[in-house]
Design brief:
This protein has 297 residues and is mostly beta strands. It has one domain (7-179, 247-291): Beta-galactosidase, Chain A, domain 5 (Distorted Sandwich), CATH 2.70.98.10. The protein is 0% helix and 45% strand. The protein is built from no helices and 22 strands. It has strands spanning 7-10, 14-18, 36-41, 45-46, 64-68, 84-87, 91-94, 109-111, 114-118, 122-127, 137-146, 149-158, 164-172, 185-188, 201-204, 207-210, 218-223, 229-236, 241-246, 252-258, 261-272, 277-287. The strands form 4 sheets. The chain has a 10-stranded antiparallel sheet, with no helix packed on it. The chain has a 5-stranded antiparallel sheet with strand order 5-13-21-20-17, with no helix packed on it. A hairpin with a 3-residue loop joins β6 (84-87) and β7 (91-94). The protein starts with 6 loop residues before the first strand and ends in a 10-residue tail after the last strand.
Length: 297
């Protein structure tokens, strides 16, 4: 794949590198738009890493990237083998056989047409609708930076005949300054897990910690709904950290990670009637301890 210069967004505190759609990734799991591959705070602190450090392993995720329909693919059950179904932010995928949908499986894809408009601090991606079996949706995603904040605003317009029922989350592949996961990290959650975390995870008074660097991947989920607002905050012992807030009520929160990466995932439940427009916002705040309490608004 030919390397294409990315989009660079800047504020006085942040530099955010955003991939141009289809240039570094042409897979069928992750949304091609608004893919943040690098975030740097104050020219010295970084936050993004890869899904896997082993070349060719995993599904190609990195940084902050979205996915629609990991558990509820739109139109998959209605598509016959050889037929197509829409994957928001990607294109029309081909169902190869009778097997159930699997997010990690590669599918043939007819990419959606995507328009990009960018300036120094903002980029907007418009994914145009392509009708498929009664489904059609226009997706507009805007990333903007201000001070130490990165905002992602979504607008989903159902232009098809059928109701769209699915979900969206941001798969945050995070490692603060490249540090491996372990005792130096603390993850603050606004809820209590429904089951006791297994070693090396520990949860006490709203804080999740790791006794040592995990040797195997881990995954856990919490079913909502949860209130809007702050969803999680990750801090390294150096005082550098990030937090995510949303303006919707998450239906589910998942936590995935490995030795080199941690990924809190906040799910937006989507049910858009024909002709309906749904909007939601994610906001990421990057900080050092002396920046605590600053909003950037």
């Amino acid at each position: 794949m030919v390397e294409v210069a990315p989009i660079v967004l800047r504020s006085h505190s942040l530099e955010v590198i955003v991939r141009k759609p289809g240039t570094n990734y042409n897979g069928t799991r992750f949304d091609w738009t608004g893919w943040v591959s690098s975030i740097t705070l104050h020219n010295r602190h970084t936050f993004c890493t890869d899904e896997s450090l082993t070349p060719g392993e995993g599904t190609g995720g990195s940084g902050l990237c979205n996915e629609f329909g990991i558990f509820q693919p739109i139109g998959y059950e209605e598509a016959l083998p050889g037929g197509q179904f829409p994957k928001l932010g990607v294109g029309l995928l081909t169902r190869p056989d009778e097997a159930s949908y699997k997010f990690s499986r590669p599918y043939m894809v007819e990419p959606f047409f995507i328009e990009t408009k960018a300036d120094e601090s903002k980029v907007t991606f418009t994914v145009h609708a392509h009708p498929c079996n009664g489904y059609a949706a226009k997706l507009v995603k805007t990333l903007s930076v201000k001070d130490n904040l990165l905002s992602i605003a979504y607008e989903l317009i159902n232009l098809g005949e059928k109701t769209i029922v699915t979900h969206e989350y941001c798969h945050n592949f995070v490692a603060i300054d490249g540090n491996p996961l372990g005792p130096d990290y603390r993850l603050k959650l606004p809820m209590t897990p429904t089951s006791e975390p297994s070693s090396p995870l520990d949860f006490k008074d709203g804080d999740m910690t790791w006794a040592y660097t995990p040797e195997q991947p881990f995954y856990s989920g919490l079913s909502g709904p949860f209130p809007p607002g702050l969803q999680w905050e990750l801090t390294h012992k150096s005082g550098v950290g990030m937090r995510e807030s949303v303006d919707f009520s998450p239906g589910f929160i998942a936590l995935w990670g490995n030795a080199h990466v941690i990924s809190p995932e906040v799910f937006m439940e989507i049910a858009a009637l024909s002709g309906q427009t749904i909007r939601w916002i994610r906001q990421f705040d990057f900080f050092e301890h002396h920046m605590e309490g600053r909003t950037g608004r």
